[in-house]
Each structure stands twice: as structure tokens, then as C-alpha cells.
């Protein structure tokens, strides 16, 4: 006979409690990793939409601010998205992106400070950098206008410069795909790990309960009743005898 609280029963109970405690910490780390990877995936997809998808759909372009001429609102490294804008809709105060020389791909983005319309109906603009003391020297003709500022994203211009042109169209889907695959793997491994831990905990609890109940714990109920102390098998099966004196 084993004393209560010793032997296999106590070891099983200890193992069960240990297995139940450790998975909680691992599960928390797994959920935290899943949340972080999911958030990063959403961020990458959002950047891809803002930098690639929307400009393509609208016919705009993503440009990087390289100088301090529009600081402090648009410091170097700011990514600006421009959109095509009808000349008639461009107003004083808009940030205008225009070609330095007509037909030259190099552009400048400065704020419109003057809008003029000639007798022939041609519209020209005078622009100035927010951080510049003087306005730009030459009026901007309609042919040099590329668009106006749509929205800006701080610091993302550095990434835009590092990954530009066709490389951007290739790298962004690859990164997004890898992050999505990692998120799926994390979800599947988390579910599988949790099932294993629950099964191990259940097995440990069952072993502890069986050992704590003694050798009769796993016997059928009828046999346990038959082995109850103070009663023999004959006492259980003999019919009860009535006292002859009481029958009258």
C-alpha cells in the first residue's frame, strides 16, 4: 500500500500542473508574435496601396522630397503622392509639381503663390518653396505642370529611393507574400501546439485522478461494490430470511 500523496499519484499531479503552467507562457508569446506579424503585414499592404496601387489607379506618381525647400511641413525624406489636376482647378496655396524644363523628367514641388491668366487664356503660376525666401524665378506654364499634391507620408521617401522603379513592383508583393505565409504558419502551429498541450494536460489529470483513487479507481462499479469491506459475496447474494416468530 502506498501512503496518500506519494508515489505515482503525486508525480503525475506535479507533472500535470507543470505542463499546464508552461504552455500558457508559450501560448502568450505565440499570440503576441502572431499579432505583431499580422500588424506588420497590414502595414506593408497599406503602404503598397498608398505608394503603388492608388497612384497607378489615379494616374499619379510617388515622389521623394530631396531638399529643405518645403520644410518643415515636408522635410527631406517625405514621400509625396501627386495626382493629375485640371489647370482650372489649381488654386493659390496648392503644392504644384512641375517640370524644371518642359519635356525634362526632373521636377520640383513648390506652393502656388500667384495664378495668372493671359488675354489668350493661357494660365501661368508663380511658385515658392515654403522654406525659401524668394519665389521661383520663372512662371510655370501649363505644359510644365505634372499635378498637385494629393497626400504625403513622412520618412517613406527614403525607402522609395532605395527601392525604385520596377524593383518596387517586385519587392513589395514578395515581402507581403512572405509575411502572409508566416502569419498562416504561426496560426496553424499555434492551433496544433494548443491541442497537444490540452491533450497532455488532460492525460496528466486523468493519471493523477486514477492514482489518487487507489487500485479500484479503474475497476467497473459492480466489482468495486463487490469488494466493499464488511460484506462477503454470500451476504450479497443470499435472500433475506424472515424471522419465523415475526411471520405470525
TrEMBL record:
GO terms for biological process: signal peptide processing. One of its GO terms (cellular component) is membrane. Keywords: Membrane, Transmembrane, Transmembrane helix. This is Signal peptidase I. Residues 234-248 have a biased composition (Basic and acidic residues). NCBIfam families: sigpep_I_arch. The chain crosses the membrane at residues 31-57, 169-188. Residues 221-248 are annotated as: Disordered. It comes from Salinibacterium xinjiangense. One of its GO terms (molecular function) is signal peptidase activity.
Amino acid at each position: 500500500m502506498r501512503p496518500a500523496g506519494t508515489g505515482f499519484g503525486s508525480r503525475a499531479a506535479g507533472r500535470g500542473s507543470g505542463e499546464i503552467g508552461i504552455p500558457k507562457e508559450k501560448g502568450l508569446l505565440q499570440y503576441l508574435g502572431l499579432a505583431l506579424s499580422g500588424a506588420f503585414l497590414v502595414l506593408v499592404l497599406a503602404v503598397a496601396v498608398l505608394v503603388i496601387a492608388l497612384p497607378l489607379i489615379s494616374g499619379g506618381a510617388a515622389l521623394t522630397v530631396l531638399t529643405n525647400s518645403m520644410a518643415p511641413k515636408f522635410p527631406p525624406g517625405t514621400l509625396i503622392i501627386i495626382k493629375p489636376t485640371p489647370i482650372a482647378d489649381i488654386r493659390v496655396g496648392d503644392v504644384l509639381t512641375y517640370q524644371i524644363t518642359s519635356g525634362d523628367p526632373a521636377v520640383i514641388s513648390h506652393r502656388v503663390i500667384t495664378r495668372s491668366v493671359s488675354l489668350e487664356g493661357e494660365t501661368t503660376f508663380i511658385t515658392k518653396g515654403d522654406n525659401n525666401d524668394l519665389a521661383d524665378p520663372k512662371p510655370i506654364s501649363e505644359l510644365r505642370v505634372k499635378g498637385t499634391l494629393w497626400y504625403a507620408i513622412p520618412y517613406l521617401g527614403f525607402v522609395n529611393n532605395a527601392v525604385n522603379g520596377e524593383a518596387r513592383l517586385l519587392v513589395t508583393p514578395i515581402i507581403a507574400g512572405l509575411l502572409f505565409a508566416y502569419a498562416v504558419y504561426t496560426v496553424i502551429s499555434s492551433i496544433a501546439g494548443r491541442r497537444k498541450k490540452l491533450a497532455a494536460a488532460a492525460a496528466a489529470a486523468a493519471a493523477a485522478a486514477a492514482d489518487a483513487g487507489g487500485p479500484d479507481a479503474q475497476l467497473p462499479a459492480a466489482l468495486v461494490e463487490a469488494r466493499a469491506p464488511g460484506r462477503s459475496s454470500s451476504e450479497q447474494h443470499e435472500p433475506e430470511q424472515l424471522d419465523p416468530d415475526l411471520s405470525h
